[in-house]
Amino acid sequence: MAKNYYDILGVSKTASADEIKSAYRNLAKKYHPDINKTEGAAEKFKEINEAYEVLSDPTKKSNYDNYGSAQGPNPNDFFGGANGSGGFGGGFGFGGLDDLFNMFSGGFGKSRANMAVDGQDINIKMNLTFEEAVFGCTKEVNVSKIETCSKCNGTGAKNGTKYTTCPECNGAGTVSYTENTILGRVVRTGVCKTCNGTGKKIIEKCEYCNGDGYNKVNKTVSINVPAGIDNDQVLTKPGGGNAGVRGGRNGDLHIYVSVKDHKMFVRDGYDLNLKVYVPFYTLLLGGEVEIPLTKGTTTIKIPELTQSNTIFKLKGKGIKNLNSNNYGNINVTIVGEAPKSLNKETKQALEKVKQNFENNDFSRYKNYVKDLKDIK
Ligand SMILES: [Zn+2]
Ligand SMILES: [Zn+2]
Known about the structure:
The protein is an alpha+beta fold. It has helices spanning 5-9, 17-31, 41-55, 58-67, 75-84, 97-113, 130-135, 280-285, 344-354, 363-375, and strands at residues 122-128, 137-148, 163-165, 174-181, 184-191, 200-202, 214-225, 234-237, 253-259, 266-268, 271-279, 287-292, 297-302, 310-314, 330-337. Helix 2 packs antiparallel against helix 3 (41-55) and helix 5 crosses helix 6 (97-113).
């Protein structure tokens, strides 16, 4: 049996922290080896200190109160406890050497049943406008998740204290039983049904979680969206998922990003592509064209005699890279647009002008005509 720390300090189990402290001070003074030279005083002093170390620490005290050990439940307590309580096998109804072994396996099994269970990850989708993705933003999302009950610290017991060791499994969380099979007697270990493997019996349920130890909550979570994020990329908030059980780690929150298309740009990585139709005469005579930027606009000069489909690269005017301060480009493809109608006067004028081009070298067209002849 573990030492009774309350008896050692001469206080009741319900003693306040102050009462424990004052009892310890009085005894420590009385048995301090410098003062008390009688036989056994040093031993007693050690004992007093040990008791105070446990009872003055809320965690250790709670473990001691519930499990009879400052360390809380462990497989060895299980065995010792079963012996100490006299009823070897307690609620198991075992006897004999075989079962002594079973008790051990049950004891080891306990750590498995009581094992921390990690919370699950949560995946949600987040819609962003083009601008939000390009410049980054802070966005609030609604997450439905499981959170450890803060009122009972996840124990499910009122104030986190109204529980005792499960009498069915003696805190193990597992129960061992033997089965007679054709291969002989087989020992099996299963999760304790009385406590669902927690090893704890709740005396009074926590009213905030109805004894579950967790609550399903709707949380508004603020997400920092970095500039440059693109469609189908995932933002992860570590620990933002469902809460772990029995000290297990929390799951992560994964946010799948969906970015709305820009009205004009077509995004290609960190580059933005844009096709601009200009009147055909702009290609011949040159001119200026207003081009959108991620913010505002700019004007580019089209030199005279520009070929259709010429790409004008606006370096560094694209999107900021996610992991650096580099920027992509805006690639503007200039395409000539022919008129859809011509009045008589214009048509006659063009026919006249056409002759002026006859000595021009339309090299690409001439090559095409040549190639066509070759394959005929
Ligand atoms: Zn149990
Ligand atoms: Zn609770």
